[in-house]
Design goal:
2 domains, Four Helix Bundle (Hemerythrin (Met), subunit A), flat, alpha+beta, single chain
């Protein structure tokens, strides 16, 4: 395999194939912007010549970098750009495991997703996952039903991570994916939007309450 070739999962051939890189584009922070650099590769399948746009994902370590298909969109694996790349990487791999009918592996990757989320949210390092989730609850980052969902995902992840005569079922793996995405959306998408909404309302309220000159 040459330097301008990549191994892809071709959406037309429906199998792993070699692809040739046809172009690249990188987006880097400018000024006071703060985000991970984003690198995109345009490739064509060497077998059927169909095109794909790949995004280079950056993990916690350089050795963890990988390529993920950005276009055509991977069914069931569309995640908000607000989710940190390292956490999104774990979630995308969970989807890939499910697509390959590896349901126990799906549960393990969902657990890793939760662990990455806890680490990103600043929970105490090296604590067991259930302690990390309790810490998020105690600090008000998750509550009520959401905490129950996260704990249920942890239990399914434990079932996948430790040997058992009962494998993780397709239904449990599918539910785990849906619940994990709901938790991520709450933490990284809805919470942020709600905080912005509250700030705008507070700013408008303060402006209208000022006495006329």
């Amino acid at each position: 395999m040459s330097e301008d070739q990549k191994v892809i999962q071709c959406h037309v051939c429906d199998k792993a194939t070699l692809a040739t890189v046809r172009g690249s584009h990188q987006i880097v922070p400018q000024g006071d912007e703060a985000f991970d650099p984003m690198t995109y590769l345009l490739v064509s399948c060497d077998r059927c010549r169909s095109a794909q746009l790949l995004e280079e994902l950056y993990g916690f370590e350089e050795s963890d970098d990988l390529l993920e298909r950005a276009w055509p969109e991977v069914s069931g694996a569309s995640l908000s750009s607000s989710i940190p790349s390292a956490v999104a990487r774990e979630m995308r791999e969970a989807h890939a495991c499910f697509k390959s009918k590896l349901y126990t592996a799906t549960a393990v990757m969902v657990r890793r997703t939760l662990e990455g989320m806890c680490a990103d949210q600043g929970t105490t390092p090296r604590k067991p996952l259930f302690k990390g989730l309790e810490e998020l609850r105690d600090t008000g980052k998750i509550e009520g039903r959401l905490f129950e969902w996260a704990q249920a995902l942890r239990v399914i992840g434990n079932q996948g991570a430790h040997f058992s005569t009962e494998p993780v079922s397709r239904e449990d793996a599918e539910d785990a994916l849906a619940l994990a995405e709901a938790v991520l959306d709450y933490i990284y998408v809805f919470t942020s939007k709600y905080e912005e909404f509250q700030k705008r309302r507070a700013a408008r309220s303060a402006k209208t309450s000022q006495p006329a000159p």
